[in-house]
């Protein structure tokens, strides 16, 4: 079969053996595969990523000197089953799958390991238990977005976002756009999106952002600052003012009322901020400039050591959380949210290329800002 291989940073189309499904696996004919930011990172920083993966117990992440087929976002149709499968779907059925597959040496990350070739190819293997049928009404392009949207779905849940929260998305690349879509699907009333690129701000608006900001001309922190606290005196003053009011209430101790108000979520509250850039210095910028009591969810992946000032974070009582992946239920729910039309990620797809166009697509994604999600169709000539 034809596949795009990555070796020492070079992408090339080669003829490789068609994989054969092992126990519990099925063979899929790839219909679409997405180019992910993780793929761009892996091309340039594979060894650094592999070192981190090894520290957390996964020792088979791809390395620069290996020849790897990328592609962990994909939709395909069932071709054949390996031994031990239940053969849940007829050949030709369209499916998506979590990019994890069980091999003899344990769980492998599809498209990010030499031991689990990915979907930048005509065919890919998937674990039957991790595979889900695509709703009939869903196009191949949108089905291929299940995985990145599931990442955003998980991030929203990590942020424990409510409808009344103000959500601020910093960075409107593919993951930022996915976060915006998921925030609006969750009913969040005010979503602020910030990005210096005109094209990405346009896509953010198309994905549902209520306020779109060019950080060179305005501040995402002030455009939706209703009720947010920006200074320490304002925070302390709010507490003293509340105390003055509550002490005037007769009958019920002020401490009882204050505790009840906190349990009900009444009182000062910061925005939920999603860091979707992944460059050094961004976390420090957010910690420094965000309102007090903000919940900061880091979704962007910075590949180099970074720093921020803990004293600033302490003084502002911000929460700093990191979000990585998703669980199978979140993946399933995301697929059917797209299928039901609860989210429409159509604006995210800004290009479809053949296997021969993958190398050029990587260069465009690195050098330009007009693209969001580029999909690969291995069946294009």
UniProtKB/TrEMBL annotation:
Residues 174-338 form the Alcohol dehydrogenase-like C-terminal domain. One of its GO terms (molecular function) is zinc ion binding. Its cofactor is Zn(2+). It comes from the Bacteria. SUPFAM superfamilies: GroES-like, NAD(P)-binding Rossmann-fold domains. Keywords: Membrane, Metal-binding, Oxidoreductase, Transmembrane, Transmembrane helix, Zinc. The keyword Zinc applies. Residues 22-135 form the Alcohol dehydrogenase-like N-terminal domain. The chain crosses the membrane at residues 166-183. Belongs to the zinc-containing alcohol dehydrogenase family. This is Threonine dehydrogenase. It comes from Parafrankia irregularis.
């Amino acid at each position: 079969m034809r596949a795009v291989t990555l070796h020492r940073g070079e992408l090339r189309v080669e003829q490789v053996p068609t994989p054969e499904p092992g126990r519990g696996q099925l063979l899929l004919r790839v219909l679409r595969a997405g180019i992910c930011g993780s793929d761009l990172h892996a091309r340039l920083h594979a060894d650094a990523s592999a070192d981190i993966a090894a520290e957390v117990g996964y020792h088979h992440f791809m390395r620069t000197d290996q020849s790897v087929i990328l592609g962990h976002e994909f939709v395909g149709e069932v071709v054949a089953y390996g031994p031990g499968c239940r053969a849940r779907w007829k050949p030709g059925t369209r499916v998506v799958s979590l990019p994890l597959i069980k091999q003899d040496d344990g769980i492998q990350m599809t498209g990010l390991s030499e031991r689990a070739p990915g979907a930048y190819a005509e065919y890919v293997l998937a674990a039957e238990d991790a595979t889900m049928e695509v709703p009939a009404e869903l196009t191949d392009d949108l089905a291929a977005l299940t995985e990145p949207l599931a990442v955003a779905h998980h991030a929203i849940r990590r942020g424990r976002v409510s409808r009344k929260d103000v959500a601020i998305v910093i960075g409107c690349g593919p993951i930022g756009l996915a976060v915006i879509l998921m925030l609006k699907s969750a009913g969040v009333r005010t979503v602020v999106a910030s990005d210096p690129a005109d094209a990405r701000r346009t896509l953010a608006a198309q994905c549902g952002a209520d306020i779109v900001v060019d950080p060179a001309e305005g501040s995402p922190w002030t455009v939706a600052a209703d009720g947010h606290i920006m200074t320490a005196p304002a925070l302390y003053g709010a507490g003293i003012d509340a105390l003055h009011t509550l002490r005037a209430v007769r009958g019920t101790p002020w401490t009882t009322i204050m505790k009840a108000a906190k349990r009900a979520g009444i009182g000062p509250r910061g925005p939920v901020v999603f860091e979707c850039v992944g460059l050094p210095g961004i976390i420090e910028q957010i910690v420094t400039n965000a309102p007090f009591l903000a919940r900061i969810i880091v979704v962007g992946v910075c590949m180099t050591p970074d720093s921020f000032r803990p004293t600033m974070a302490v003084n502002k009582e911000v929460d700093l959380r990191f979000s990585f992946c998703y669980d199978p239920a979140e993946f399933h729910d995301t697929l059917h949210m797209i299928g039901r039309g609860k989210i429409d990620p159509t604006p995210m797809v800004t290009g479809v290329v053949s296997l021969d166009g993958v190398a050029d697509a990587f260069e465009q994604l690195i050098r330009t800002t007009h693209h969001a999600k580029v999909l690969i169709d291995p069946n294009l000539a």
